[in-house]
Amino acid sequence: MRGIPLGVALVAAALYLLRLGHVPFVDPPEGFHAQIAREMARSGDWITAHVDGVRYFDKPPVLYWLMAGSFALGGVSEAAARVWSAVPAVGIAAVTARLGFLVGGARVAMLAGLMVVANLGMYLYARIVKPDMLFILCVVLAYAGFAVAYKGAGRWGLILFYASLGAATMTKDVLGAVGPLAVVALFLLLTRERPLSPWAPWWGVLLMFVLTVPWFAAVEMRNPGFLWYTLIDNHVLNFTRHRVFPDDDVPLGALPFLGVTLLAFLPWSLAAPWAVARALRRPWEDVTARLWVLIALWPLAIIGFFALSPFKLPHYGLPAFPALALLVARVWDESIEAAPGSMRPRALIVPIFVVFALAAIALALALADRLPLPIDILSNVDLATRNQVARGQIGASAPRAVYVPIIRTCVVIFGIGAAVLAWAAWRRRPALGAWVALAVSLAFLPAAGDGMALFARTRSARIVTEALVLRLQPDDQVMHEGPLENTGSLLLAINRPVIIVNGIRSSLAFGATFPEARDLFWDGTRLAQEWPKPGRRFLVTGIAPERSVVRTLPPGSAHLVAQGGGRWLYANVEK
Asked: Is residue 104 part of a domain?
């Protein structure tokens, strides 16, 4: 039974590691992150990250260190960059299964591990270049280490706990340590653990500091103001919505955030309220029961904090998913063990049946062109689309016809799943219901991946960057309108600095205050002055012509060269 985590990892690997490089980088965020890693490898500066020659401070270095290593081995590619999201996602599933075995046994381990794999949120973010999967792996390892220590398995559990908190801080931000520490502190207070000192040994705190403080101190020494920017502006002032250096991201409201989190973890989120309440119900008669309290506090803290926070993005609920998987797996396990005739199986199966049936009906109507595809959902789920909508723009989209084969496949998957679940509910077969729900969810993910690939190609900057590369000469000047992260893969295609026009409101805002970067950021007035001067200039923009800075250039001086992926390429000379 201890081979269950390995089996879960193999399932996750089969889904998450295949075809990582078959679609171009999606901008934002992928090309931008990949370029940071490439510049780090080229410059040999492993302390201060740079992009386009501008110092970058929004994320710690672990993801960029790893990508720089894979680029050195196999060259810069989509697969070499995305592997550092996919591999940690496999690890998250395996560690969740191991934690499930520790607190609930073999069936809980199997169910929880597969539930982590079989949800759309984890799958999509495991296939794009972002530090979130690495961060979540560190968080899961921290909780697993504490659980091991709490069950009396020795000091090594606390070593894992504090080391993982340090690694989480170095992967995404300081909340990686503060959040789990606060949850564990609340847990120890609720369970009235005395004394508290064994859970905060000096060597554990020292270990966490050794893993984090040297890098933070080194960056501050080289870049005065970094700590203020990271700790105050990027966290405290961001929470109050009074940042000195705001970026271009548009936050979600509380209800949309909760809705996106619910949708991303379907169908397992349907049982989550019941599962959390079950874990918090007294009495907590033994160590294992108390650990379930810790697991329930974990998602409550994450989702509750960001629901109340003025600033949250669609993926901020993802670190709660492993805990929710464990909690939901537990209620399914108890349902399977319940006496024959119990109503509990139907309470779990029927909501999933309804969701699958509605999905099959809605997709069948869309296939028959009786129901429009819910493209607008991207304005809540996809960050780049949200930012475009906030600026009054409409993002690039593929024609409905290209999605028809995917829709047809999904109709079959959800239709068959709903039919079998209906029979399982009628016969009160919770085991059948659980495995069918898992099978349907796992079968749906490759189709979702195909849809994601179509979306990526639709929004790819490849059309305009290839057109630019074909025409670019050594003395030409390249410019980009708006935050550079919106077309980060432009930097991967050319080997020269890019002038950023009206893009100071971005994750490079603080880096732009340093002397070497100031001439890289222009406003529209300077562009209008420089554009007609001798020399060839190209402008890449993701803003429609009626809103773009192009409309302020001298009449007849901006010639459209290429258009695609929601972007335009202009030149100051005729083709």
From this structure: no
